[in-house]
Amino acid sequence: MASADISDLIAGFGDTGHRLLQAISGKTRNTLPPALYTHSLLISGRTGVGKRLLLTNIAQHLGIPLTRIHLARILASGNRYTALSRMLSHAGDRPTLVWLADAELFRGLGCHVVEGFLDRVRGMPGCVVVLSTRYADRVAVGLRSRVDDHVELAASGDRGKRFRLCRWFAQGSLDHRVIEDVAGQTLGRTAAETFALLADLAERRGSAPISDKTGVRWDDVGGLHDVIAELQEAIVWPLQRSEQFRRLGIRPPRGVLLHGPPGTGKTLLAKAAASEVQANFIA
Length: 283
Description:
It is a single chain. The protein is α/β, with parallel strands linked by helices and 283 residues long. The chain contains 13 helices and 5 strands. A 5-stranded parallel beta sheet has the order 2-3-4-1-5. Helix 5 packs parallel to helix 6 (108-120). The longest helix is centred in the C-terminal third of the chain and has 16 residues, at 225-240. The N and C termini lie close together (11 Å). The model has no long low-confidence stretch (mean pLDDT 82).
């Protein structure tokens, strides 16, 4: 899929993409004077719009580690605030991008822990914190008031921007005319939906495989909760709980057939399943 050059990816999100890249590189790579540093920011947008896509590829492009702290998983564990404090205490040891996902879930003591971290990050060389959310208005006022900037991602209706985004993803696996057609068909749709359609077209045309570097997760798949549950039972559980399956004498399926018209999310679901079990994905 994407190469180290992310110019098309950034251009695909227009001014918003350039603004995000400049904000992160300014402090982590000293491309701006200290007085203009962005120490923390909030990025919002609906599922699949490209929050993960931009953050992971910007970090890779800048050559800095990306530390993701997924609040939903911390909340599901015991001693959640202790765990959160411990993770944040080690997050800024070196130039890094700290990503706090599901910012709308931070409440009470957890919110105070993050507020304290946002205050401290101003004194951490090369460290930038990004809070992400689907619902900016649901993020605690104390957090919104502490971040330096708010970047809102939306599905583009601009054909030129969408073409650049499609070209970045296709990486030569589809010809120019096909990419132009997809760009026109997917205006206003999320990046995840657009990439799923491109991957399906490449597969049907027998093009070179498009390998996954987007780190797609179940969170990036909008809706389809019943399908996700079935895939977890058929693919994820047998691999993650193989010993229990053997002990109980359960024979998991050897494969799963996903069917549906182009653009309905088949490839996206397969990528998410592969990421969940840390397996290679080849389309």
